[in-house]
């Protein structure tokens, strides 16, 4: 088990290193931030001077080695735009992203899994039909539209919730719903399919034959067996949510990683982008390792081997 | 006893009533598209940073509502010779820590921004300054490298920072905890979220109009408008023209618009591609319906212009005739040049209105061009637009403001050969704008710019489209007059019940 985790972590380090290198090269090839920093009337010499002061006139290989050298000392460098350590900027945004991801996850799992169970056990029924309409809506309405619609209805017209900001629980409700809607649909569909799959198996008939009610069979046996694919999805969804939600964060002025990422990419604030990339890769790797460990806990038939 | 009670009750009522009528707004909330990049006024210069930190600091000189340069920290100035100017400094100004602002601080501020070690992106606006020396506690002498007529216009953008404090805490700390002599001091900077300011009680120009000011970063314009409509924000920046009507007629909201020095223009590559032929460039000029753009896409919030410049800009001239919308003439010129169906690449980025670019594409296609829009992100766009002429496309839209209200800040960088933006070379033009930036005689400068504009009219390396209006959404009770340089000074605002 320990060996397994160690090996996964080693793979992760190689993967993260690869991602960092690709991002570094792509970002540097597509222009540097100097042009975006200077006023419009700057002369070519001024731009060249600032570029050299910021170190962007050096060959890309040298800049890359320099960057890696910093990383080796856990020095992530300073933001070119804000002139403060890049790590501080990203870390200051992280709590907001975690908050929003948690809110969205509550919406997604809290509504998605029960909806999936109901849809599976109540196939063809009225409830299942209504629920599947809800799920399809959650899945197909783009977030920029649902976000603005929510603001318009609950913020501007009814005035129940604040239209933007991040300071209170009330401010979390709309972004959580808008962001959680898509994951909710994924959870509902996944739960439904895996339960239907399990319901066709022999042990269900055996249980029924022993006189257990359908509800008892589902709760005691089916749910546990159906949970493996749902856990896989959950790991991916948590990764997605923690990677930040660019559109939702922009629409609701929610100061998370997603908004920061898009702004930093636009302003070519390289070092901030690199820290975000590092963080997101790390989250993905971590959630997938955790999912593997949860498999073992849930289903003793699974063994972690090389 | 009864009478006494009644008297007390009446006076209590009167007190309540007077308290109510004297009640003013305590906190003003302003929604900007972005947070400040830095609060050190000598570092980043973009509009959002400007909007915030210029309320924390004072400027050496400033512009009044009509656009005239007037004293602020400097009380007066005079030229000793063509390259030396002497400023007299107020002696009743204190920084927010109570220390006195002196000539030392002014000289320090100038020297700090021109020091290459600070790596300030604003350096190019002040690089004509050679040195600043303290003569006595209320006098500073500034020397320029050569006679430099735009000096005062550039100094409008110079914030005065406290020498002792900056030296004590260092540059990095100063950026986090800025302290100036302006009407508002920083209470908390929640990066990326909001910046909280509080009135500085001993401000030399009197009591600031609001006790607190909160600048929030709200990137999405629909959300800014929702904030304004629900009273979460009192003032919002960057309202798009197609949303203006809902704010203008809104319940409790008003639209504030002001003509600016910013001018929308079409760049035309005079050094490469089909537009190398002047007749093709003239055809483009005749093919664009400027008034149509203003009416249809800006909803009238703009004014068509004859040159790349506008009324509030020194050197602007109404003597040079603009190109009228004349598609027939455009077709004829195109035919004469043998360039019918010429392929033009129109560079753009998401920073510019897609609708405007597509409208111009359509107008040009109507007279016989074949225009392709090449959209990329801003960094890539700038790299091409400012790079080698052969790779700089044929056309691009831009909205230019130097925030200096001087033609030297517009047509010099745009069209003087050798400048990064210029894809054009005309020796006569170069000589005119070179001379105009090296003499102080205003009448003569105006004459030179009029001649320069006339050359631009014939050669069309670019086409002035419209003077743009800044649009703000505001709560009905906010009284404020937007200025041509798009500055946002809370000190100029007030709240009227």
Write the layout of secondary structure elements.
The complex is a heterodimer of chains A (306) and B (497).
Chain A: H1 2-29, H2 34-37, H3 44-54, H4 60-72, H5 86-121, H6 126-140, H7 143-157, H8 169-199, H9 202-209, H10 214-242, H11 246-251, H12 257-266, H13 270-298
Helix pairs in contact in A: 1-13, 5-6, 5-8, 5-10, 5-13, 6-8, 7-8, 8-10, 10-13, 12-13
Chain B: H1 2-22, E1 27-32, H2 47-53, E2 61-63, E3 69-71, E4 74-81, E5 84-89, H3 103-114, H4 123-126, E6 129-136, E7 139-144, H5 151-155, H6 163-176, E8 184-190, E9 194-199, E10 212-217, H7 221-229, E11 235-236, H8 244-248, E12 253-268, H9 278-287, H10 290-296, E13 302-304, H11 327-336, E14 343-348, H12 354-366, E15 370-375, H13 378-385, E16 395-400, H14 411-415, H15 427-436, H16 442-459, E17 462-475, E18 478-479, E19 494-495
Parallel strand pairs in B: 1-10, 1-11, 14-15, 14-16
Antiparallel strand pairs in B: 2-3, 4-5, 5-7, 6-7, 8-9, 9-10, 11-17, 12-16, 12-17, 13-17, 18-19
Helix pairs in contact in B: 9-11, 15-16
Structure, briefly:
The complex is a heterodimer of chains A (306) and B (497). Chain A is an all-alpha fold and 306 residues long.
Describe this structure in words.
- The complex is a heterodimer of chains A (306) and B (497).
- Chain A is flat and about 85 Å long.
- Chain A has 13 helices and no strands.
- In chain A, helix 5 packs across helix 8 (169-199), helix 10 (214-242) runs antiparallel to helix 13 and helix 12 (257-266) packs antiparallel against helix 13.
- Helix content of chain A is 77%, strand content 0%.
- By secondary structure, chain A is mainly α.
- Mean pLDDT of chain B is 92; it is low at 5-22.
- With 497 residues, chain B is of the alpha+beta class.
- In chain B, the strands form 4 sheets. In chain B, strands 1, 8, 9, 10, 11, 12, 13, 14, 15, 16 and 17 form an 11-stranded mixed sheet that branches. In chain B, strands 4-5-7-6 form a 4-stranded antiparallel sheet, with helices on one face. Chain B has a two-stranded antiparallel ribbon with strand order 2-3.
- The chains are: A mainly alpha (306), B alpha+beta (497).
- Chains A and B meet through helix 2, helix 3, helix 5, helix 7 and helix 12 of A and helix 4, helix 6, helix 7 and helix 13 of B.
